[in-house]
Write a structure and sequence with these properties.
Length: about 950
């Protein structure tokens, strides 16, 4: 038996069908090892020795792989055909060697450019060894990202409060966005005028012509800059006679675009479908790995991480056949088209992104796909087919017109364009990032020397506009042009900029946040070399040369580290005043825009004599007066309007005044702390504080809510047995209710300020009976006998009270009062459970592989479940709105990401419970204790080809259990 190792379970499932019974295909679920986020993971002093750590979730999967490999005849590493895929294969092989299960078994590497039967069987005939050069390029890239992230991010934390992280590619992409914003702010609009004549030929057909010259002088778009000059031209044209000076018609061709690369796919999906790059790549991954198309699971597109535009000859032939059949022979060019990539540092190792079967038309497969999958597949199919279609044939006509106004001669021009043969335009037109002038249509028949009639003359005022902000598509395009990063990094890089609150998206445009601009300004001031576009592109080129066996990867690291470590050391003695001076100089036009009246933009509007400047506080940067503490004027960086001019006396960054406590007169404030938002009463002498509950948003906190939080803990009820009070409060681990030394946590959606007596008693009784978070199995009371026979018991479960009737266990719906639960209510609950309905949600339908999918209300929010795989619902979905299609997609995405592993056999659909046998006495189970782990301190490191991760120094290894 041969063991084939891939990274995706969906891919494994498809490939297993094609290879047959002599092969066992198993998934690694992506990366299995990574650099732990702690000091020493990459050691420059030991020639950049790298210490790898097996991912916690990957340990069990690696054990499963090792068990299969132990009895295998051959091992085939079939991870994705790119640098990351090569790295995953290398990691898996290293782990298997460490486990000593390989022995003398042959190990081969194969790559599947498409998940189809023919492609897979053909690839299996051509195995190779692991490409050491690709692995070394991966190691160099990973080490660089670690060294930059792990050494530069702490500098930001110390010198620039509020900043979260920096990265080799991430910071340069952020600089692009910030530089464009600075261009927009510095832009000064320029006035210009255009003059257009509305004319008619002798047959009374209308058209327009634009002024392009006067008295032998050419007039360009911006040459007429004043209204008076425009009016003079208008008066001259009003009096002029118009004659056709020349007519020139030229044929022209428009050629189709190349098939998609990773970058162009992300750009076009953003423009035409409104998909963010990360969503585009996730959907494309599913199309590549395989989709069930009516009984057959097959990959619909070739591998989606590529910067090559070449296409296999057989695919070109198939595309030409489809064109002839669907559009006619006149749309098939005489010679197949071949494309060359223009991107900097392109590595044309793979085909362009294309359908695996050209005859699989979008309209025929749409019914098998999710809506996003169908839209993206259609985009890829049309682009590929159009790339092999005949060119569009156009005719561009230019008419030069002479206008005589007394002694003045004015020149006008009319242009027109008509499509003589639509060619590829019949199927596909590329989307545009920004609005452009539409190509003019057909001009009427005109002849040289023909006198023209004038209808009217328009003189229109215009103003130049600043360069537009980047969209995700145009930023990806710009990064590719500069050679920054790799196509597989773009989606994750943009996602990180949003997650760090460095940029936001407004009307599909990327707008830098103040935090992002501060980080960029700091890096430009003190690490300018490492955010330069040319330097980053040159380093990327070096990594490409490593992958081509042209450079030693360790030497690349040595050269980089020598200068980078010196730059890091140079910031250790950096004083706050130096940081502030540099940031004030760089961000001056942004923070203190010029005033219309010409007055000093830095003058303090409160005291008049002080100067405003950038200051750094515990919670980030803000604007303050130089006369502090006499003048306490402050404002945020982003507040530059009327409220900034008025100022807020005593306002501090990270703080919002809610009002005063009517009882004490103390100021009540909402603050942004290290561990989240909190409210505080007063300022000095150990002020009283309270965290917000998990379900509270800082922007929703009112004075009344803050006073209620500060009054916690509060008495909710009396214990029914002891008569002692049950208190509700907020502690280190969230909201809770308490009776003596018994604590029970509230659910995330329960409000500590209005929890009722019944619910509090339920939680305490359940916890005291052995239920709740760490207990389970204790019987609270017998409810009675079910009408069909058998006793119903109320028990304390690990996650709360539930009803037990024979083999049916039913969780109580939220809000159920266990003290007043009746037999009729209990019977209805267990009957619903026996019929297959979850007590905490609803059944949605059957999974394609069998087994029911249910939507449930979980402890940490609503989720969908199938066959022991649970997937949390996004905020846009609710228990009531989620559909079976959406639930299936969420489940499959969870499995593909490695976050869930279904059992071998789908869970059978629940049927009505049989009449239970007489109840037997059961031995009481000892509750299982859970040993918690201390959360590590977060360190953020950029990852080259995957989403940057957040990790940290692991907690100390727990002592062995005695």
């Amino acid at each position: 038996m041969d063991v084939v190792i891939v990274e995706s379970p969906a891919k494994a499932k498809t490939i297993n069908k094609y290879l047959g019974k002599n092969f066992e295909v198993i998934a690694s679920f992506g990366h299995v090892r990574d650099l732990p986020a702690k000091d020493g993971s990459v050691d420059p002093a030991d020639d950049f020795k790298m210490l790898w750590e097996v991912d916690g979730k990957a340990g069990k999967r690696l054990s499963d792989i090792a068990a299969l490999v132990k009895d295998a005849d051959r091992i085939v590493l079939a991870t994705d055909p790119d640098r990351e895929g090569e790295a995953i294969s290398w990691h898996v092989l290293e782990v298997l060697r460490a486990k000593k299960v390989l022995k003398d078994k042959p190990v081969d590497r194969v790559v599947f450019n498409a998940i189809t039967k023919d492609a897979i069987l053909e690839a299996m005939k051509h195995p190779r060894r692991i490409d050491e050069s690709l692995v070394e390029a991966y190691l160099a890239r990973r080490a660089l990202d670690y060294l930059v992230g792990f050494n530069l991010s702490p500098v930001l934390w110390r010198k620039l409060p509020g900043a979260r992280s920096a990265g080799r590619v991430q910071s340069v992409a952020l600089r692009l966005v910030c530089d464009r914003e600075l261009e927009i702010e510095k832009f000064k609009a320029r006035e210009y005028w255009s003059l257009v004549a509305h004319l008619r030929n002798q047959a009374d057909a209308p058209f327009i012509a634009r002024l392009v010259g006067a008295d032998g002088r050419k007039i360009t778009r911006l040459d007429i800059g004043e209204g008076a000059e425009a009016e003079a031209f208008k008066q001259a044209l009003d009096k002029a006679s118009f004659t056709v000076k020349s007519v020139e018609a030229k044929p022209a061709k428009r050629h189709p675009y190349a098939p998609f690369t990773t970058s162009t796919l992300q750009q076009e999906a953003s423009r035409k479908l409104g998909m963010a790059p990360e969503i585009t790549m996730r959907v494309a991954q599913r199309l590549y790995e395989g989709v069930d198309t009516g009984g057959e699971t097959v990959g619909l597109i070739t591998y989606m991480r590529t910067d090559g535009v070449d296409v296999a000859p057989e695919a070109v032939s198939a595309a030409r056949a489809v064109i002839g059949k669907e559009f006619g022979d006149k749309y098939v060019p005489g010679v197949p088209r071949k494309y060359l990539v223009k991107a900097k540092n392109a590595q044309e190792a793979h085909e362009a992104i294309r359908p695996t079967d050209m005859s699989r038309l979008p309209k025929n497969v749409a019914r098998f796909l999710q809506p996003d999958q169908a839209r993206l597949y259609e985009l890829i199919w049309t682009r590929m087919i159009a790339s092999q279609m005949e060119s569009a044939v156009l005719e561009r006509t230019t008419v030069e017109i002479e206008a005589l106004a007394g002694a003045r001669t004015l020149d006008l021009r009319a242009t027109g364009q008509v499509v003589r043969f639509d060619g590829f335009l019949k199927l596909y037109q590329e989307g545009k990032d920004d609005e452009e002038d539409e190509e003019s249509g057909r001009l009427p028949a005109l002849s040289q020397g023909e006198a023209l009639k004038k209808d009217k003359i328009d003189a229109t005022q215009h103003f130049t506009e600043p360069p537009p902000r980047y969209t995700e598509a145009t930023l990806v395009k710009r990064m590719e042009e500069l050679g920054i990063g790799r196509p597989s990094t773009y989606a994750s890089t943009l996602a990180v900029l949003r997650e760090r609150d460095y940029v936001k998206i407004e009307k599909k445009r990327l707008v830098p946040e103040d935090k992002g601009r501060l980080v960029t300004a700091f890096l430009e001031s003190f690490f300018g070399r490492y955010v330069q576009y040319d330097f980053t592109a040159a380093l990327e080129e070096q990594l490409d040369r490593v992958s081509n066996s042209e450079l030693d990867w360790k030497q690349v690291l040595r050269d980089f580290w020598t200068e980078f470590s010196t730059a890091i050391d140079g910031t250790k003695e950096l004083r706050t005043t130096q940081v502030l001076d540099s940031l004030n100089d760089l961000l001056g036009p942004h923070i203190f825009p010029a005033k219309e009246d010409g007055s000093n933009p830095r003058a303090c509007p409160s005291c008049g004599s002080g100067q405003l400047s950038l200051k750094l506080g515990k919670f980030g940067a803000f604007i303050g007066c130089s006369n502090y503490p006499e003048c306490k004027y402050t404002r945020t960086l982003s507040d530059r309007g009327e409220s900034a001019a008025k100022g807020v006396e005593g306002e501090r960054p990270g703080l919002k005044v809610l009002g005063e406590d009517p009882a004490t007169g103390q100021e009540i404030t909402l603050r942004d702390g290290r561990f989240g938002a909190y409210v505080q009463e007063g300022e000095y002498d150990k002020p009283k504080r309270s965290s917000l509950a998990a379900n509270m948003k800082p922007e929703d906190v009112t004075l009344e809510m803050a006073l209620a939080l500060l009054s916690l803990p509060r008495e909710v009820a009396k214990h029914p047995e002891s008569g002692e009070p049950i208190l509700a409060g907020i502690g280190r681990y969230g909201s809770y209710v308490q009776h003596k030394k018994t604590y029970a946590n509230l659910a995330k959606d329960e409000n500590v300020l209005d929890i009722g007596a019944n619910r509090a008693i339920d939680l305490i009784i359940t916890k005291e009976a052995g239920g709740g978070r760490f207990g389970g199995g204790g019987e609270i009371r017998a409810v009675g006998n079910h009408p069909q026979g058998g006793a119903i018991a109320l028990k304390a479960g690990r996650f709360g009270p539930y009803l037990a009737w024979g083999k049916v266990n039913a969780t109580l719906p939220k809000g159920t009062d266990i003290t007043s639960l009746t037999l009729e209510q209990a019977a209805a609950i267990v009957d619903a459970k026996a019929a297959g309905a979850p007590s905490d949600g609803r059944l949605l339908g059957e999974h394609p592989d069998g087994g029911p999918i249910a939507a449930r209300a979980g402890r940490f929010g609503p989720y969908v479940s199938w066959n022991k795989v649970n997937a949390t619902l996004p905020k846009s979905m609710t228990l009531e709105s989620v559909t079976i299609e959406e639930a299936t997609r969420l489940i499959e995405d969870k499995i593909a990401s490695g976050g869930g592993k279904p059992s071998k056999k789908p869970a059978a659909k629940n049927t009505a419970a049989k009449k239970p046998a007489a109840k037997k006495a059961l031995a009481k189970k000892t509750p299982t204790k859970t040993v918690g782990k201390k959360a590590p301190a977060k360190v953020e490191i950029e990852d080259s080809d995957e989403t940057p991760f957040e990790g940290g120094a692991p907690a100390k290894k727990p002592a062995a259990k005695k």
